[in-house]
Specification:
By secondary structure, this protein is mainly beta. It has 3 domains: 76 residues, no CATH class; 50 residues; 107 residues, Immunoglobulin-like. It is 5% helix and 40% strand. The chain has 1 helix and 24 strands. The strands form 5 sheets. It has a 10-stranded antiparallel sheet with strand order 11-12-13-14-15-16-24-18-19-20, with no helix packed on it. A 4-stranded mixed sheet has the order 1-6-7-8, with no helix packed on it. It has a 4-stranded mixed sheet with strand order 2-3-4-5, covered by helices on one side. A hairpin with a 2-residue loop joins strand 4 and strand 5. The longest helix has 15 residues. The termini are far apart.
Length: 322
């Protein structure tokens, strides 16, 4: 018959043993330490100067002083002495230091609930991988506020990268919205997940919108100044309108065909009396008649001149352009 129990190594009272209370008390002392185990510190190496009776420390590497040579053991202080116990796989201990539950496995005291920071991945209803660090298989996903606002932020590293939301069918992309390769907002579609067509672009600087065959925006121009609008293609049509509620806008509105490529051309299709066509002239801010507006073209741009007294806003819409 063995002298000790198999798991907790409690000493057995032997037949005809004298002073049986010594063995019995030793077994009770071990039970007092191990059952409902609470550890004051983990990876401890230096004994405390004034330990309390019943304190237990889980020793790490390099234990010193009266703990020397006891690396990996549990140091239990009882009746003014240190008793060393060898933990076994599966033992659980409550950490008095950080109020967490740990389990002993392969020589380490591991947290039962792992840290939730800097995880390699999380899978909900499915498995995450090195690309999809967060993976969810569900009928829906809910992101709600905690009392006020709620914002979902998608951040990319550089302007040439992509920050977007992709809608797929059968794991093949069909629609995408976001910053796709630059810093303007795009909505685009695909028939096969490979070839993509831009349906709508919103320019980040001023919110100007560009759709298939359509590109619109506004520009603010000071009095006696010229504003420049890049054309989305070398040729097409453009509608110009002065935006002002305090007086009629029609005299400063017009529809033009243009070429801002190798053959500079501006041709008036319909034009109000206060919007002058200056063709390919370089506008200076005082070129047109005082009190009027003017339009001209130069390479890659429209020129809009404001001579109408005070800062003015002009709206533009390019037609039949890609």
């Amino acid at each position: 018959m063995s002298d000790h129990s198999s798991n907790l190594l409690l000493p057995y009272i032997q037949p005809s043993q004298a002073q049986k209370h010594v063995t019995h008390n030793e077994a009770l002392r071990r039970l007092d330490a191990i059952v409902q185990l609470t550890v004051q510190s983990f990876d401890a190496s230096s004994p405390p100067a004034d330990p309390a009776d019943g304190d237990i420390h889980a020793l790490g590497a390099g234990a010193s002083g009266v703990w020397a040579g006891q690396d990996g053991m549990l140091a239990y202080h009882a009746s003014g002495h240190w008793i060393f116990l060898a933990p076994k796989d599966g033992w659980r201990a409550w950490s008095a230091e950080d109020q967490t539950l740990r389990v002993f496995s392969a020589g380490n005291w591991l947290a039962v609930t792992p840290p939730l920071q800097n995880l390699d991945g999380i899978g909900v209803g499915t498995s995450s991988d090195t690309v999809n660090r967060l993976a969810i298989a569900s009928d829906a996903a809910l992101f709600s506020h905690a009392g006020s606002d709620h914002r979902l932020v998608i951040n990319k590293a550089t302007a040439a990268d992509t920050a977007s939301v992709v809608m797929q069918s059968g794991w093949s992309g069909r629609a995408e919205l976001g910053l796709t390769g630059d810093e303007d907002f795009h909505i685009r579609t695909s028939p096969d997940g490979s070839a993509w067509t831009s349906a709508l672009t919103l320019r980040r600087g001023d919110g100007a919108s560009r759709a298939r065959c359509l590109f619109s925006g506004t520009i603010d121009i000071d009095n006696h100044s010229v504003g420049y609008v890049p054309t989305p293609s070398a040729g097409g049509m453009v509608a110009i309108n002065l935006v002002a509620e305090e007086f009629p806008q029609a005299p400063h509105s017009g529809l033009f065909s243009y070429d801002t490529g190798p053959s500079l051309t501006l041709f008036s299709l319909a034009r109000g009396t206060s919007l002058e066509d200056w063709g390919t002239t370089v506008l200076t801010g005082t070129t047109a008649t005082d009190g009027r507006s003017a339009l001209a073209v130069r390479s890659g741009e429209l020129q809009i001149e404001n001579r109408h007294g005070g800062p003015r806003r002009f709206a533009y819409t390019f037609l039949n352009t890609y």
